[in-house]
Structure formats: structure tokens, C-alpha cells
Amino acid sequence: MMSLASRSFPCGLGSLSGTLKAEGYSFNVLDADALDMPLDKMISTIVAARARIIGISTYSSYADITRYVVGEIKKKLQDCTVVLGGHHAFAAGNRLLDETQADIVAIGEGDLLLAEVCDAIMHGKDLENVKGICFRKHGSIVRTADRSYIEELDKLPWPAYEYFPMDKYQSHFWRRWTSGYRKPFVGIMTSRGCPYRCAFCSNVMW
């Protein structure tokens, strides 16, 4: 059956990959959506990698799926650290620690934050010094100081495109509905935020 769907390159995840690469970390990226990967296959792939730190992007519409995926990962990799980020993490904050088995919730922009979390975990540093996160400590939830927004996006490293299935990202190409052809497509992020304050939009949090 012909697929008419488009898929966009995940710019946020791409930025995280660029920072991790620049900081010299060894990592993998799994864009399960782009790969049309079933949930059980996604979980088994994550578990098979046996990573010490696992980051997961969250969306409010996928909250139940996130809870399930984190639970399955923690069943099989009890010693790993699961970090939740993304739009839903920013909106829900420390509530995600109550609703899931995640270890850390990143609140706000994660471009530099994730590398700082990795540095703290890998070198035994105190997570309380990392701004913009919630985490469990001695049975209690700790929320660190708010993180300032990134002012100069040009200083961020380019995404590590080599870790992504670049052939899967395709645009809406309206003149080719009958053939199903989609042009290769990658977006870039030139700014963040929005000057408007629509009541129905999560942008009011930014």
C-alpha cells in the first residue's frame, strides 16, 4: 500500500546528538517512528544496546506509552538511568517521576542539559548542580534551579546526521500524490519560541 505520510527530521533530537558528539560521548540514536518500528521491537532494541543512560523524548499524547516503555526498560535494565525530556516533560515536570519509573526529568531545553547530566552520572558528580532537572534522591524528589534559555543558537553544534536514518525523512510533495513520491527533506531550526500567547498552546510555558 502506498504511504502518503511525510516524516520530518527531529531537530530537537538532532541537536542533542550534536552536543553529545561534540563532548566526546559514545551513543546511539533510535528514531523508531521514522523506522516504523513496532513498540516491542523498539523496546528490545533499546534493551539490547545496554546503555548506561537512556534518553526518551516525551509527548503528552504518548504519556501512557512512555510510562509503559520506561517500565519495560527498567524491568530488564535495573541499573540504567532513564532520562525523560521533550514537551511533555517540560509540562509535567516532577509529576513524571510519580507517574513513571524514570530517574530524571529534564525541564526546558535539553541541548546542553543532557551532556551535563551524562557528565554528572559518568563521573559521580552531584545532580543538584545540574540546572533544569527533577530527580529522586533518598526517596524524595529534588527539583534543581531553573535553567536559562539558550540565547545564541548558532553556538550549538550541528546535528550528528550520521546517527539518523536520513533516507526516511521526506516532505509533503503535493504534486506527486498519485505516485507516492516524496522528496528527501531535512528542516533546520533558526529560532525558538513564539511572540504570541494563545491559550490553547503549550507555548505559554515558554
Task: Write the topology of this structure.
Elements: H1 11-22, H2 39-49, E1 53-58, H3 63-76, E2 81-86, H4 87-92, H5 95-99, E3 104-106, H6 113-122, E4 133-137, E5 140-143
Parallel strand pairs: 1-2, 2-3
Antiparallel strand pairs: 3-4, 4-5
Strand order of the largest sheet: 1-2-3-4-5
**Which shape, going by the Cα principal axes?**
globular
Number of helices: 6
Strand fraction: 5-15%
Through-space gap between termini: 41 Å
In this structure, how is the largest beta sheet organized?
5 strands, mixed
Extended strand count: 5
Radius of gyration: 18 Å
Integer average pLDDT: 88
Q: What is the N-to-C succession of helices and strands? A: HHEHEHHEHEE
Q: Which class best fits the helix and strand makeup?
A: alpha/beta
Task: Report the helical percentage.
Answer: 25-40%
Stretches where pLDDT is under 50 for at least 5 consecutive residues are: none
